[in-house]
Amino acid sequence: MPTSRAAFTLLEICLTLCIGMVLIMLAVPSVxxxxxxxxxxxxxxxxxxxxxRGRIRSLKxxxxxxxxxxxxxxxxxxxxxxxxxxxTAERLPLAKGESYQxxxxxxxxKIAPAEWTFWPNGTCEPVIISYHGPFGSWRVSFxxxxxxxxxxxxxxx
Length: 157
Description:
The chain is an alpha+beta fold. The chain has a single domain (35-79, 88-156), classed as minor pseudopilin epsh domain (minor pseudopilin epsh fold), CATH 3.55.40.10. It is 33% helix and 30% strand. The chain is built from one helix and eight strands; from the N terminus they run αββββββββ. The chain has one helix spanning 10-61, and strands spanning 65-70, 73-78, 90-92, 99-104, 115-118, 127-133, 136-142, 149-156. It starts with 9 loop residues before the first helix and ends with a strand. The relative contact order is 0.15.
C-alpha cells in the first residue's frame, strides 16, 4: 500500500519565490520614498525649532534677534551686542549636502542681506525659506505674526 506524502513540488516553490521577489521589488521604492519624506520632514522640524528659539528669545529677553546666513550655515544671535555681553549665538548644524536659503519678500532693498529678524514684540519679517538636501527640497512661507510655516513646495529625490 503506497503512503501519501504531503510536499510541495519544485515548480510550486519556484513560483512562490518569484511572487515574493516581485512583491519585494514593488515595496522597496515605496519604503525609500517614505524614508526620504521623513528626512525632509525632520529638516523642516529642525529649522522651525531653530526659528522658534529666535522668536522666544526675542520675547523673553525683550531684544531683537536675527538669523544670519553665511557659507557655513545659519546663526541665531542678538541684533545688537552690548559691550561686555557674553556671546549667546547659536548655530544650526547642517549635514553634508544641506543648505537653507532665505527670501525676504517684504525687503525694501533690491538685494537684501541674508538675515531674518525677530522683534521683541513677537513678530518677525515674513520670509520664504528654501531647503536643499540629499533627500530632496522644500520651500516654506513663514508668517510675520506667528512664525508659522506654510509649505509652498516639497519634492523628494
